[in-house]
Amino acid sequence: MLRDGLRFENFLIGTACRSCADPYCMVGCPVDAIHRGRHLQIVIEDHCIGCGLCAANCPYGNISMAPNLRRKLEVPDPGRPGKTVKVAQPKASTCDLCDAEGNRATPLPRCVYSCPHDAAKRMSGEELLRIAMASNQSKL
Hints:
The protein is an alpha+beta fold. It is built from 3 helices and 6 strands.
């Protein structure tokens, strides 16, 4: 989660995967590396080849490409002709609610769990709207 994003009332909507109802990011993955998890979260498997299609398809910009340290490729070393060097293959990355394997009964995102002030919460848009509207009603 990035501590940046839209502001709604006195809430900061951190940039994180929104686990869309109809996720465009899942369309067209050439190696079927992106799917829904147990809690309907978006999960990107380690066999992702780093093509970036899912990142390009995400309308919110919440998928980024990161080095996959579990998959290293041998490529020609540009500084030493005839030699090779190992580099981490790119991999798509997004919030998987810290439960990519689906081991938890309820997801527990580390960003929420580790917030020292209990300021981070994971909620649906409807829940946020309900809280903001109740806050507005109490101000009247």
